[in-house]
Input
Amino acid sequence: MSSGGFEDLTDGEVERQAELEEHWQERLEESDQATAARLEEAGLTGRLQIGDGFRFAWLRGDEVIAESNFRQRFPEAFEEAVGRLPAQYRA
Output
């Protein structure tokens, strides 16, 4: 049984993963898309990392402002990272 790590992915899976990491906003519900847009307007950048699940981080420049743990579902990782933001970024 494989470990599910990067080295176990086929070329097609790596391509799909890269596509999801780049276009993560499109996978969100409408209300979360609005939250993402508001945070980006405030100067933050969202970053999705796929490994042993999904991890999401909000960055200002190179500094990680908030980051989720690895979650089984992307929306859960996004919501966790939003919940960990300092108060000035929350609505």
